[in-house]
Specification:
This protein is an alpha+beta fold and 99 residues long. Helix content is 42%, strand content 24%.
C-alpha cells in the first residue's frame, strides 16, 4: 500500500506533494527537518492523503497533483474531501480557498 499526500506549510504558505509507503514516518521526517527539500518550510500539516495499491499508481497521481496550480490543488482536495485529514484541515482549506 502506498499513499499520496499533500502537506501544507503555514509559515511559507506553500504545499508539498509526495508519495510514501509509511505516511506517519514520512510526516515525522518532514517535521524533523530530515528531508532536504522541505526542511526550511517546517512545520508541515498533513492536509490530504489517499491510498493506492501500487507504487506506480501513487507516482502517477503524485505527478498529476504536482502539476496543478495552487487553486486547483485546493479544489481537488475539497472535491475529494474524504482524504482530508481532519475537520481542522478542512477549515484551513476553506480559508485558503477564500470561502
Amino acid at each position: 500500500m502506498y499513499f499520496v499526500y499533500i502537506l501544507y506549510s503555514t509559515p511559507a504558505d506553500t504545499f508539498y506533494v509526495g508519495h510514501t509507503d509509511d505516511l506517519l514516518k514520512l510526516l515525522n521526517r518532514h517535521n524533523s527537518k530530515l528531508e532536504p527539500s522541505t526542511r526550511r518550510y517546517a512545520p508541515w500539516i498533513l492536509l490530504w492523503s489517499t491510498s493506492k495499491s501500487s507504487r506506480n499508481e501513487a507516482v502517477r497521481l503524485e505527478l498529476k497533483l504536482k502539476n496543478l496550480s495552487r487553486k486547483r490543488k485546493i479544489s481537488f482536495m475539497l472535491r475529494y474531501a474524504a482524504g482530508i485529514s481532519s475537520p481542522d484541515e478542512l477549515k484551513l482549506l476553506l480559508q485558503l480557498s477564500g470561502c
